[in-house]
Every structure is written in C-alpha cells, then in structure tokens.
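Please review this one:
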Amino acid sequence: MRITIVGCGSIGSKLARAADEIPEVKRIYLMDMERPLAEDLAAQLKKAIVVDNVEEELYHCDLVIEAASQVAAKDIIPKVVSRGVDMMVMSVGALVDDDFRSMVRAKANQAEAKIFIPSGAICGTDGLRSSAVGRLDEVELITIKGPKSLEGVPYIIDHGIDVDKVKEPTIIFSGTARDAVRFFPKNINVAATVALLGVGFDRTKVKIVLDPATHSNSHELRIKGEFGEMTCHTYNVPSPDNPKTSYLASLSAISALERIVGNEWIGI
C-alpha cells in the first residue's frame, strides 16, 4: 500500500512514524504547506518522500490521509475521491456544509472511493452508530478544555473572554454542532463526527466548558433513544507538542490505518 499524508503536524507526524513501521505500507508521500516541516519528517523515516501537490502521486496512491485543517480537507477531498482513491479525514468539520458533503459522497460513490473517519478523541461512537439505526431522541456533547487548548480562538476573543482570567468552570459555548464546528474549527472536530453518526448537525447539542483547573480535554457524550440511555466520558491527555490536540486522536488515526491495511473490522 502507498499512502499520502497531508499535514505533518502533531497527528500527521505520529501517523507517518507509525506507517513507516507497517510492513504493508511500501511508500509514504508527505505534504505540508510548510515544506521544511515535511522534509524534516521525511528525513527521519525510511519510506517517505515529500511531494508538493496531493494530485502528484494519486495514480500511484491507495489512500490519502488528511491531517491538516478543515480548509485543506475541503480542498483535497473532492480531488482525491473523484479519482477513485480512498480518503481518511481527520478534520471532520470540513463536512459540516450539507451541499459539500452531498457532492463528496456523490463523487466517491461514482468513483468507488471509500471515505474513512476515525473516532478521534472520543469514545462511544460505536454505541451511537448502532443506536442511530433506531429512533434517537437526544444527542448531547459536553466538552471541557483548559486555557491552553482554547487560547487564540477567534470566537473567544470576539466575545471578550480572556482564557487566563477565567477562575472557575465556565460555559463559553452552548448551541448546535453546526455552530460549534464553525466557531471552533481546530478544537471540536469530534462534534462533527458525533453529528454525522447520530441526529445531524442541527439536532446535536454541544456545550464547551473552559475549566482553568483541568489538565485534560474531556468529552461527555449523552445519548437517549428507543434503545435506552448511554453516557460515555472520555478524559484525554493533550498531545505534548500541541495542547489543542488530544493524544487519543493520533492513536485513533493510527488504529484506523492499521485496520484499513489489515482489512480487519472488529466492532464496526
């Protein structure tokens, strides 16, 4: 298998190092807007080379993995799937736009390309996916983050919130998953995953809490439906090189790649 990784930051670099040790992965193409970042990473690996454009190696590539941003995802997903190449998406918030999502699905179906979305930094997605086969009455996501995870977010700055001056747990956002993904594009991609699996972007409720005392990014998923009720709480350790990213998100991407390569699907 030959893979392309777009984005050589926290998740992309961990994924590339893991892929370098998977025997079935024969070649890794790396791409990043900051080319030196990709070159630096490639120099540490055995199977990697740097490319300037995601389309450069599509004819030789079996899987493209986006680990960059929602903007990058919106740009490359249609190009990849329309060529019949499978795609793994980490910036799931890129799929919040209904027309864009429908277009991508149509192109993927026509070209027989698969789109993979790892569970990311949240647990309980398997139960949500199963319960959505029946009637779902309520899906709510409550996310608690520390100041470092939320500093520099335009929504918070626009609302006059100084994350360093908040002294007790404070709800800084309460609304739909659609708005949460739009206002927090780098912080709450799990909301998009939950929305896609469950009741959609407009019915999924999201609360984001800023807690100055927390040392982890936590997600509480509450689900009610004809199956019963479910509450799943995930306490994440932030990635040491990027406090806005949970370490579990990187592990989820690596796990997904191993499942794809091994063609093994347990717990689907």
In short: The radius of gyration is 18 Å.
